[in-house]
Amino acid sequence: MSGARTPYPARGGTSYWEAAWQQGRRYRPLDTAETEALRGHLGTGRGRPALDIGCGEGALTALLDRLGYRAVGIDCAPTAVTDARARHPAADIRLFDFDADDAARLPHPAFAVITCRLVYRWAADKPAFLSGVRRLLAPGGVFWVVTSVHDPAQEPARSWDAEASDVELLTSGWSKAQVHALGPSLRCYALRP
Ligand SMILES: C[S@@+](CC[C@H](N)C(=O)[O-])C[C@H]1O[C@@H](n2cnc3c(N)ncnc32)[C@H](O)[C@@H]1O
User: Fold this and answer.
1) CB-neighbour burial class of residue 124 (10 A; exposed 0-12, middle 13-18, buried 19+)
2) Pfam family of this protein, just one (predicted)?
3) Residue 127 belongs to a domain
4) What range defines the domain where residue 76 resides?
5) Does residue 51 lie within any of the structural domains?
6) Among the listed ranges 37-41, 51-55, 157-161, which one has the minimum average pLDDT value?
7) How many domains does the chain have?
8) Which residues have C-beta atoms less than 6 Å from ligand 1?
9) Probe target for ligand 1 pocket from 11, 38, 76, 83, with the most ligand atoms within 8 Å of CB
10) Is residue 14 part of a domain?
11) Protein residue whose Cα sits closest to atom 13 of ligand 1
12) Which of 51, 123, 128, 163 gives a 20 to 30 Å CA spacing to 134?
């Protein structure tokens, strides 16, 4: 059912992502429906810190700033960081590998919101990735994940679709797990510890 998967380094994907950005690969832009879903689930920031893991060109980081969060966007690919800073000069964008770098280097010890858009599917060690997120979520915080999933009406699964088992892992063990479908194969998850 899952079909061929894109080869991905077992640990640490910086070279993979940097090459993709340098080759000009770009990703699905935020649209109104997704922006409204995020706003509805997360609410306004009121100056609270937010972390956007794998921020790419920084559109979601900038959206969080506009919603009143003190957002930090992190990405492991230098070209993405350069692009994000150029597109959103006021945003706090940092070169940071969430899998490898020390979370103590982040500007806040905890975040009211952590977002992860089109990134979770690619995390090499998903349990470690999720543990890292849980350690950084403030009490009452929300983990917002956007990911492609396999639409059973469409065969085969695409390489960028999260596996059903990975979605199960993602959504397990939270006090509240809400799902918002943006289409047959795009999901948002609002996860609360
Ligand atoms: C498919 S792109 C999505 C970019 C952006 N979130 C968006 O929605 O347009 C995945 C991004 O995650 C970044 N990334 C992947 N693994 C990462 C990690 N361990 N730490 C930081 N960034 C990571 C990649 O460099 C890439 O920019």
Assistant:
1) middle
2) Methyltransf_11
3) yes
4) 45-153+164-187
5) yes
6) 157-161
7) 1
8) 13, 17, 27, 53-56, 60, 74-77, 80, 97-99, 117-119, 122
9) 76
10) no
11) 54
12) 163
Taking CA atoms, 81 is separated from 85, 93, 126, 181, 184, in Å, by 6, 6, 23, 29, 31
User: Domain with 107 in it: what CATH number?
Assistant: 3.40.50.150
- The pair of structure tokens assigned to 46 is 């009121």
What pLDDT, in 10s, does the model give residues 176-189? 999 999 988 999 99
Which residue among 34, 61, 75, 122 is best mutated to probe the pocket of ligand 1, counting the most ligand atoms within 8 A of its Cβ? 75
pLDDT confidence bin for 18, thresholds 50/70/90: very high
Residue 64 lies in a domain: yes
pLDDT at 47 over 70: yes
**13 backbone φψ class: left, alpha, beta (φ>0; ψ -120 to 50):** alpha
d(CA 127, CA 169): 8
> pLDDT tens-digit profile of 112-134?
999 999 999 999 899 999 999 99
> pLDDT above 70 covers what percent of the chain?
94
What pLDDT does residue 182 have? Answer: 95
Nearest to 115 by CA among 138, 95, 143, 141: 143
Per-residue pLDDT band at 8 (split at 50, 70, 90): low
